[in-house]
Amino acid sequence: MEQKTPNRFTEALGEEVDDAFKKLASEILKDGALTLKEKSLIALACAVAVKCEPCTRAHKKQALKTGATQKEIMEAAAVAGLVRMGSGFNTAYALLDDDETGKKLVFKPPTRDENKHEEMGDESKPEGSKIQRKPDGYLNSILERKFVE
């Protein structure tokens, strides 16, 4: 008698666990405030963000089945890549901690004028106040421009 290889890890854990997982997935993915198509695109984006290639392929198939276009899939993946890149910058923000004092380092980012002075080799740079940098969401600047226009 040939033994069946489980398709999912939950199948290997047993029928009760697999059934519970399927029921949970079914409840979460049913149409609500978001459609199944929208949820499929979110799942695809999550798979891209966590860098799971088999998951990405599986969620692409699901998204196509729900009517997502290749363009929608690519945009969802691009958003995931942007979030992943941004999370890397937010993680790197921890490098601005001064380990000795436990405070954030204060620095003055170069202005365009200062960059010009550096290119010309001029050591006299315009005076400016130092600012403390805080992590900010890239969406804030986009939303501010959108609502100001």
What does this structure look like?
Residues 110-136 have a biased composition (Basic and acidic residues). This is Alkylhydroperoxidase. Residues 104-136 are annotated as: Disordered. By secondary structure, the protein is mainly alpha-helical. It folds into 2 domains: 7-96, Up-down Bundle (AhpD-like); 97-149, no CATH class. The protein is built from 7 helices and no strands. The model has no long low-confidence stretch (mean pLDDT 79).
- What fraction strand? under 5%
Low-confidence sequence ranges: none
How far from one another are the termini? 70 Å
Largest sheet: none
| CATH architectural name of the largest domain | Up-down Bundle
Q: Which percent range fits the helix content?
A: 55-70%
Number of helices: 7
* Count of domain modules: 2
CATH-defined fold name of the largest domain: AhpD-like
Strand pairing plus helix content: what structural class?
A: mainly alpha
Shape: elongated
Number of strands: 0
Radius of gyration: 24 Å
Q: How do the SSEs run, as a string of H and E?
A: HHHHHHH
Task: Identify the CATH homologous superfamily of the largest domain.
Answer: AhpD-like
Output the CATH class name of the largest domain.
Mainly Alpha
Average pLDDT taken over every residue: 79
Organism: Methanobacterium formicicum (strain DSM 3637 / PP1)
Domain Carboxymuconolactone decarboxylase-like: 16-97
Pfam families: CMD
InterPro entries: AhpD-like, AhpD_core, CMD-like
